[in-house]
Design brief:
By secondary structure, the chain is an all-alpha fold. The protein contains 13 helices and no strands. The protein has helices at residues 2-5, 22-28, 32-39, 56-62, 66-73, 90-97, 100-107, 124-132, 135-142, 159-166, 169-176, 193-199, 203-210.
Amino acid sequence: VIRLLLTKDEVDPDTSGYFGTPLSAAAMDGHERAVRLLLARDDVNPDAQDEHGQTALLWTAYNAHEDVVRLLLGQNDDNPERRTAFGHTPLTAAMDARHRGIRWQLLTCNDINPDKPDIDGQTPLLQAAFFDGHDGVVRLLLTPQAVNPDKLVLFSRTSLWWAACHGYEGVARLLLEQDDVNPDKPDNDGTTPLWWASDHGREGVVRLLLVRDDVAPDKPNLLGRTHL
């Protein structure tokens, strides 16, 4: 049907409606054949944005259609770092959706900055450390040394702070292996990763932190409360 419609001169294949362009709508639902038909045309912009700045790549990354993501990343005129009006990129959308395959596709794309925060200051490393404790994604982010693992992000806390808070031992171990990570860095309330891990009963993370010489086991927060 799409092929037939595209033969008519009065049909605009790049018109924008409620779900963006026809390409965005096809990508959103993972219709690979329709995406291929539209991408083959010179009058279709693969990087077109809807009224909220959302592109076909962002929608298909969020909805976890790996084959369509691969097709769109192969387009020279598709910007994989395009931000929406809400500050999201295809990578942050994929991190939110927690789809492993698409995360890997985007993180290994040379045109993507893996340390770029969204409008809320959340970096891909924070999202991997905070939301699901995914060791593999954290390892991939740390490998090229393209990210700052000690950056203060959400609520002026580091990725290690959040991993410690949630008890993600694997992520905490990976971050502690980085020379530029301060394992005793406090947030604005003076609470350190050890303080919060102790408070939440994260025994495994507490053990990881206590064996280090650069972690003070009796440092109080701003209210004077110690780990014990």
